[in-house]
Each structure stands twice: as structure tokens, then as C-alpha cells.
Specification:
The complex is a heterodimer of chains A (560) and B (284).
Chain A (H helix, E strand, L loop, with lengths): L1 H6 L20 H23 L4 H25 L3 H31 L5 H17 L6 E5 L4 E4 L5 H22 L4 H31 L2 H4 L5 H16 L8 H19 L3 H82 L8 H31 L8 E3 L1 H18 L3 E5 L8 E3 L1 H17 L5 E8 L3 E8 L22 H4 L7 H11 L3 E6 L6 E8 L2 H5 L1
Parallel strand pairs in A: 4-6
Antiparallel strand pairs in A: 1-2, 3-5, 6-7, 7-9, 8-9
Helix pairs in contact in A: 2-3, 2-10, 3-4, 4-6, 4-7, 6-7, 7-9, 10-11, 11-12, 13-14, 14-16
Chain B lengths: L2 E5 L3 H13 L3 E5 L2 H10 L4 E4 L8 H10 L9 E5 L4 H9 L4 E4 L5 H25 L24 E5 L3 H13 L3 E5 L2 H9 L5 E5 L7 H9 L9 E5 L4 H9 L5 E4 L5 H18 L1
Parallel strand pairs in B: 1-2, 1-3, 3-4, 4-5, 6-7, 6-8, 8-9, 9-10
Helix pairs in contact in B: 2-3, 6-10, 7-8
The chains are: A alpha+beta (560), B alpha/beta (284).
């Protein structure tokens, strides 16, 4: 430094740079370098860090690195007033300029094909770039320095870089247009359109500005090309937010925060007074800090949402699997029952033929025994029929025939049926019906009869002493049928399982071994098909039980 | 309408069964004691006596012995013991004494008792028919392989085509129909069944629904669309899985009758066929 000073080197007639390369008179073009440099560098770094392992992320980072470096050196070029510095910086600028193009071309290959660029293409790129590498350090690029304009004089070969840059831009454009046509996935297609447009527009703006500057020597206008970077950033940021380009999970909040911080950062360089600049720096850091917190909070929320989504996805899968298994089981029962019925029907048929003497007269004892076979078989058939009904209910294949029905008729019929059984078991069975007739209900009579019959039958089975009361009463919107007994009762643990398939009271086997635990399940399905409810109440073991069935009164239906 | 004598001393129980049997279409007379029962039987003819064992004046067993040993009573009178005492020994004793059947009161609800009574009555009628067929000497079905066709003799008997793939059902229903005096031709799959039906000459087609190659529904539709077989009566014999289809067929009037295999015994089917032919004849 000392030797330069004593030699009084040749300098341009512009102020020497101070404070972060600032001259005293800030020019818009010049100061724009700093935020654009920061923007390129941060965007590249962000993409690189968010997924280090992906080739496209690394290639994009290199593109942004080369461009950032270019911008930084260009800023130095603008600020410097010493020809030697300008010449050096210019040479490096020319050297790295096509590398930005090459990187983006490379990026296009990786993004579109999902693979590395083929070796042959890399070779072609290298061959095109090689002369640049050889020529740049020679006077074929810069012949001399024009101290009056503070610019180097470009030699004829200086334009070689523009030539190859144009080739790369055309290559990229044609490649993008051709390849995008065959991308089938609409989402991927849109994503690539954004990215490719951003890259091409940026490169045209960048190179176009440089060519203009070179031809006219008006670098104030030429440097405008740098603003292409803003377009690239916009296109890429949109693509990243919308399509997770580079596999970056950036959300609009983050992009917004970054944009705000960058805009605020740019103000630092636009600030006219020292005080303003300090104030802007403070707001910049405040925004940066708050922005980081905001982004973190949003990220946390997103991660939680994703986890929830993941869990619910797994639940959906598990649920579908369960449903499939349940269907398979119903199908199995249905087929098995069907298969069971054929031999059972044959037994029934042949035993009846035997009993009728179709194969000759039978000894009385043989006939009586065959009678027992016949009855046992009938019981088995009944059981199979019940199983088949269950599988039909599960498959939703039961058909109901609703008709306006007098519930009293069903109850009176049941009273006649069960009177004898109660009499024999020395139980009191009473039916309490209201004095005024119950409203007509829209019911599938036989099915409801079966349900109530089953409940009364259970009450008889599970009651040793005392009485069974069947009571029907009308409320405003429903009819309630209650069957109360003084039997074994139901413990609290058993109540919730009462209406499930193949469940029955714990003491059921002690009192009666012939129940299968299907009756209440079937009953519940039937009543629910009537939009009614059935529930059980019990004060506990040995304290009797109450079964309460409710049937809604459909006024609209009645008025018809 | 069958006439039944119910011998039962408990007025409560007696009333319930009188009501139940009466509402099911039987003519029922009640007797409260053993002597009452014997007197009533002497005064009228009954198709069935339901006899309780524990009754005043004379026990059920004594009434049974009297009915079977005293020549004043018809020996063919059908007596079904209707009792709570259903141990093997009691059953054996009543059968030895000449009872025709046994219904255990505790094992059946009143509706089931009615069904059992009906079954016994059907059984007795069928037994009588078989006995009368066997009387003249040679049984016609001894040499007939139940799975092959009966030779059809022109003119005399009604001819039935039975389309059914399950061999046991072919044999079972085939036997009952042949025993009832019908000529029965069987086919074991839908296509051959349809072709056979189209050759004509059948008075009735009884077909299964779930068949190989053609379903019962397809056979019925094809027969109804063919001028030659348009008016042949068709019975549909099904398992219940195809319920809705069967209901639709019945509703459309394409079939005369439909049955669930599980619910109809072979002789019941033969009985229905008989009634069907006689009403058809009456209409002509």
C-alpha cells in the first residue's frame, strides 16, 4: 500500500470507496448491487441448506454463488477508482459470467429429467466454455484501459462470452419447451413452467444488460439487467412455496418474512443520512429476529398439522382394513351358513320321508327317535338361519316392510304366547296397556314382534321368582315399551356389552344354556332401523332388569 | 279341517291351547279328565287326540291302554302324548302302549305346538298313503334308481321336470313326487334343464334358482318367452339367499309358486303339487 501511495498511481476521477464500497454519491444502479447480492446469496444458501443431499439444490446454490460473486465483483468495479483493480475485477467477472448460465442449464436438466446431466452434454458445455477459459487472461479480452471513462477497452474476443451465453440461453429455452411438452403430471408441469420461465427471463435480462453495456459503454443502463434476479427470485419462491421445488417446505409466511427483511435491508443502502441508516439497521435486526420467531412458530404448527394428518391417514387405512375384515367375516358366515343349510335341509327332508313311512313302516321306537332327530335338526337349522340373519344385518341386506301397525295387537299376541310359559314357571306375567289406544306406528310388524318377544323370553329365562311386567305408554313423540323383571339382573360391567354380537349375561349359562347371545344384537339392529332405541337398566346382580324400547311417532306419516 | 281332542285338566293351559289351535284353523274339543276323554272319543270321530299324562280320575296312561285294548275304540285313532313327563322311559312306555307320537309341553311354545300338531297330521296322512300303496304287493319304486328318470308313459300320469343340481335334493324331492304318483324327469344344470323343458310334454317344471350354467331366473324368463312353454306352470324352489330376486319373480307372476327348500318337506311339496293339479283341473 505504501509503495502505491508513493508511486501516485493512476486513478479515475471518481471518489475512492468507503463504508462497504460506498462512494459519496450513491447511484441507484450501483446501490442495487448490494441487496441483489444478498438476495442471490441467501436464496442459494437457503435452498442448499434445506436439502444438502439433492443435486438440484447444490446446482442452484452454485448458480446463485456465481451470480452473487459476479454482483459483488461488479459492485467493486463500480466503486473502484484504480485501473488495476478494475481490470482484475473485470477479468474475473467475464470468466465467471457464463458459469451462471451453465449452472442454470444444468439445473434445468436435473429438475426436468430428475437425473444428472448426461456426460455427453457436460462435454459439449465444457468444449464451448474452454475457449473462454483460455482467452480471458489474455489481451484478446481487454486490450487497454480508458482512464477518461474509467472503463477498460474490450478487445474483439470479449464478445465470445456473450456468444456462448446466448447459446446457453437458447439451449435452455429449447430444452425447456421440448421437455415440458412430455411432462404428464399437471402439477409437475406447472412447477417446471414457473422455474424455467424464471431462469430464462433472468438470464435474458442479465446477458441483455451486459451486451447493452458493452456495446454502448452505458453501464448505468446495462446494470439494470441485474434486476432480472428479482424476477428469478419471485418465480422460484412461488414455485418453492406452491410446489415444494427443491423439496423445500417453505410456506408463504417464510417467503413473506424473507421478502420483508430483504426490502428493509435494501433501505439501509438507500438511507441518505447516517441517523436514518442506523435507525434502519435497528428495524432490520428487529424484523429479522421477529421474523425468525414467526417462521419458527409457523413451522411448528405445520409440523403438528402434518403429524396429525399422518396419524389420521393411518387411521383411515386401519379403519378400511377393519371394515374389509368385517365384510370378509360376514361373507364367510353367509357362505358357511349357506353351505350348512344344504345338508341340514337334506336331513330334514329324508327324516320326514322316513317318518312318513316312505321307506317302509317304522317301529314306534324308531319313529320316536327319528322324531327327536327331526327336532334337533330343526333347532340347528334355526340357529344357522339366525347366523345368516346376522350376516345379512352386517351387510345391510335386511329388508324392512313398514306398515302402520297397532302395537297393542303385537303385545296381546305376545301375552297369549307367553302366558303358558309364565304359568308353568310360576311367574306372574302382566301386560299394562294405556286406556286410550296407542298411536299407530310405522313398523315392520313381524320384526318388532320378534324383538319384543325375544326380550320377554329373556325376562322369563333369567327370572326364577317374582314377576314380569310389560308396559306400553305413549309420549308426545314416541311410544315406550318397558319389560321389567325380578330376575338375576345385570351387573354394571356387563351392561355395555349386552347388545353386542355373541355376548350374553354372565349367568346366562347357569339359567339357560340354549341362548346364543344373538337375540339382543339382532333386536338392536331391527329397532335402530325403525329409528328407535333399546337400552337396558339394572340395579345390579339379583335386582332384576328393565329393557326399554322406544319407537318414534312419525306424525307426518300418520297424517297421510 | 282336522278335528282335535285336547285332554288337559288345567283350565288355564287348556284355554290357551284351545285358543291357539282354534285360531290356527283346527276344530278343537276339550276334555278335562280321563273318563271325560273316553266318553268324548266314543261320541265323535277325531283326527288326533292330544293326551296329557297327569289327569284326574284316570291317568293318561290308563286312558291310552283302554283306547288301544278295548275293541270299542277305533285302533287307528291317532294319539299324540302331550306331556311334561318327557324322560326316555316315559316316552318308551307310551309308545309301547300304542301312542303315535309325543309332544313335550316344556320344549315348545304354543305356536310351535300348533306346528308340531300340523306336522304329525301331515305325517299320519302320508303314512296312510304309503301303507295303502304298499298293500297291493309290489312297490313300483323298488327298482327305480332315484337319480335317473322315471320312464314316462304317455297319457296317464302328470309329468314333472325337476331341475336341481344337488343330488340329495334330486333324490329327496324326486322320491316324494314319484311316491305321490307323478312321472319325474330330472336335469342337473340350467342349460340342460331349459333344453329339456323346451322339448315339451311337462305338466309342471320345478326348478332351483342357483344352478350351474343358467340360473332359475334365466330359465323362467326363457320359458316364458318361448311360445311352446309360455303357459307351463313353474314352481321355484330356492335357498333364501337370492331372496330379493325370488320376490321380484313371484311378484311379476312368472312363477306359480316359490318355496324355500329349508322350509318345505318333500311330502309337503308333493301335497302342494297335488292340490295345484286338482285346482287346475277344476278350473278347466
Amino acid at each position: 500500500m505504501e509503495s502505491y501511495a508513493t508511486l501516485k498511481p493512476l486513478v479515475c476521477d471518481i471518489p475512492a470507496p468507503q463504508f462497504l464500497l460506498f462512494n459519496d454519491i450513491p447511484s441507484l444502479v450501483y446501490i442495487s448491487h448490494i441487496p441483489i447480492f444478498i438476495m442471490a446469496f441467501l436464496l442459494g444458501l437457503f435452498v442448499l441448506l434445506s436439502n444438502w443431499n439433492r443435486l438440484e439444490n447444490r446446482v442452484f446454490f452454485s448458480a446463485m454463488l456465481f451470480f452473487g460473486l459476479w454482483v459483488f465483483l461488479d459492485a467493486v468495479f463500480w466503486a473502484a477508482n484504480r485501473p488495476d483493480v478494475i481490470m482484475l475485477v473485470w477479468t474475473i467477472i467475464v470468466l465467471i459470467e457464463p458459469l451462471v448460465h451453465i449452472s442454470l442449464l444444468y439445473l434445468a436438466y436435473v429438475l426436468v429429467t430428475g437425473k444428472d446431466m448426461p456426460f455427453s452434454r457436460k462435454l459439449i458445455v465444457s468444449i464451448i466454455f474452454l475457449p473462454q477459459l483460455l482467452i480471458v487472461p489474455t489481451t484478446l479480452t481487454l486490450s487497454s484501459f480508458d482512464i477518461a471513462n474509467c472503463l477498460p477497452n474490450e478487445a474483439s474476443f470479449a464478445y465470445y462470452s456473450y456468444f456462448i451465453e446466448t447459446i446457453f440461453i437458447l439451449w435452455l429455452t429449447v430444452f425447456a419447451i421440448v421437455k415440458l411438452r412430455i411432462v404428464e403430471d399437471a402439477r409437475k408441469h406447472r412447477e417446471l413452467v414457473y422455474v424455467m420461465t424464471g431462469a430464462v427471463v433472468f438470464l435474458i435480462s442479465f446477458t441483455g444488460g451486459n451486451i447493452y453495456g458493452s456495446i454502448t459503454d452505458n453501464w448505468n443502463v446495462g446494470a439494470m439487467g441485474l434486476f432480472g434476479m428479482i424476477l428469478l427470485a419471485a418465480f422460484f419462491a412461488y414455485s418453492i412455496v406452491k410446489y415444494q421445488t427443491f423439496n423445500v417446505k417453505l410456506v408463504s409466511t417464510q417467503a413473506l418474512v424473507v421478502a420483508l427483511v430483504l426490502m428493509n435491508g435494501a433501505q439501509i443502502f438507500l438511507a441518505k443520512t447516517q441517523g436514518n441508516r442506523i435507525l434502519t439497521v435497528i428495524t432490520f435486526f428487529l424484523m429479522l429476529t421477529l421474523g425468525v420467531f414467526l417462521v419458527r412458530a409457523v413451522r411448528f404448527e405445520i409440523r403438528r398439522k402434518e403429524e396429525l394428518q399422518e396419524i389420521s391417514n393411518r387411521l383411515v387405512v386401519a379403519n378400511a382394513e377393519l371394515r374389509r375384515l368385517d365384510d370378509a367375516k360376514s361373507e364367510f358366515i353367509s357362505i358357511a351358513s349357506h353351505q350348512l343349510r344344504t345338508p341340514l335341509t337334506a336331513i330334514k327332508g329324508f327324516v320326514s320321508l322316513l317318518l312318513e313311512g316312505a321307506y317302509g313302516k317304522l317301529e314306534p321306537a324308531v319313529g320316536d327317535t327319528l322324531n327327536k332327530v327331526y327336532l334337533a335338526n330343526a333347532r340347528l337349522m334355526n340357529l344357522v338361519e339366525n347366523l345368516l340373519n346376522i350376516s345379512r344385518i352386517d351387510a345391510g341386506r335386511i329388508q324392512y316392510q313398514f306398515a302402520l301397525t297397532k302395537l297393542e295387537d303385537i303385545l296381546i299376541e305376545l301375552r297369549d304366547i307367553f302366558a303358558l310359559a309364565a304359568h308353568e314357571r310360576k311367574l306372574k306375567l302382566s301386560f299394562v296397556l294405556p286406556k286410550s289406544p296407542l298411536p299407530l306406528l310405522s313398523l315392520d310388524g313381524p320384526k318388532i314382534r320378534e324383538v319384543i318377544s325375544n326380550v320377554i323370553d329373556n325376562a322369563l329365562k333369567y327370572t326364577e321368582h317374582g314377576e314380569i311386567t310389560v308396559m306400553a305408554e305413549a309420549r308426545v313423540d314416541r311410544v315406550i315399551v318397558t319389560v321389567s323383571d325380578t330376575g338375576v339382573g345385570i351387573s354394571i360391567d356387563e351392561l355395555p356389552h349386552l347388545f353386542k354380537k355373541f355376548e350374553r349375561g354372565k349367568d346366562a349359562t347357569k339359567v339357560n344354556v340354549s341362548s346364543t347371545g344373538l337375540g339382543l344384537y339382532v333386536g338392536k339392529s331391527f329397532i335402530e332401523a325403525h329409528s328407535g332405541t333399546i337400552r337396558a337398566k339394572s340395579a345390579g346382580r339379583g335386582k332384576g332388569a328393565q329393557f326399554i324400547m322406544e319407537f318414534p311417532i312419525n306424525r307426518k306419516n300418520l297424517d297421510k | 279341517m282336522a278335528k282335535i281332542l285336547l285332554v288337559e285338566d288345567d283350565p288355564f293351559i287348556s284355554e290357551i291351547y284351545l285358543k291357539k289351535l282354534g285360531s290356527s284353523g283346527f276344530e278343537v274339543v276339550s276334555a278335562l279328565t280321563g273318563k271325560d276323554a273316553l266318553r268324548t272319543i266314543r261320541e265323535g270321530a277325531y283326527d288326533l287326540v292330544l293326551l296329557d299324562m297327569v289327569i284326574p280320575e284316570m291317568s293318561g296312561m290308563e286312558v291310552l291302554r283302554e283306547l288301544r285294548t278295548n275293541k270299542d275304540y277305533d285302533r287307528t285313532l291317532k294319539i299324540v302324548v302331550f306331556s311334561n313327563l318327557s324322560g326316555p322311559q316315559e316316552r318308551q312306555d307310551t309308545l309301547t302302549a300304542g301312542a303315535n307320537g309325543f309332544i313335550s309341553k316344556t320344549d315348545f311354545t304354543p305356536s310351535q305346538v300348533v306346528a308340531e300338531v300340523q306336522r304329525y297330521l301331515d305325517q299320519f296322512i302320508a303314512q296312510a298313503q304309503h301303507a295303502s300303496q304298499a298293500e297291493p304287493g309290489k312297490q313300483p319304486d323298488v327298482a327305480v334308481n332315484p337319480l335317473t328318470d322315471t320312464l314316462l308313459e304317455p297319457g296317464t300320469e302328470k309329468k314333472i321336470l325337476l331341475i336341481e343340481d344337488e343330488p340329495v335334493f334330486v333324490e329327496m324331492f324326486g322320491k316324494a313326487l314319484r311316491d305321490a304318483g307323478y312321472g319325474v324327469v330330472t336335469e342337473r344344470n340350467g342349460q340342460s334343464g331349459l333344453e329339456r323343458a323346451k322339448t315339451g310334454g311337462f305338466d309342471l317344471v320345478i326348478t332351483d334358482h342357483l344352478l350351474p350354467s343358467l340360473s332359475g331366473k334365466e330359465i323362467i324368463q326363457a320359458l316364458r318367452n318361448d311360445a311352446g312353454t309360455k303357459s307351463v306352470p313353474i314352481f321355484l324352489l330356492t335357498a333364501s339367499l337370492e331372496e330379493e330376486e325370488v320376490k321380484a319373480l313371484e311378484a311379476s307372476g312368472a312363477v306359480e309358486r316359490s318355496f324355500l327348500k329349508t322350509q318345505v318337506t318333500p311330502s309337503e311339496l308333493a301335497g302342494i303339487v297335488k292340490v295345484f293339479f286338482s285346482t287346475e283341473q277344476a278350473q278347466q
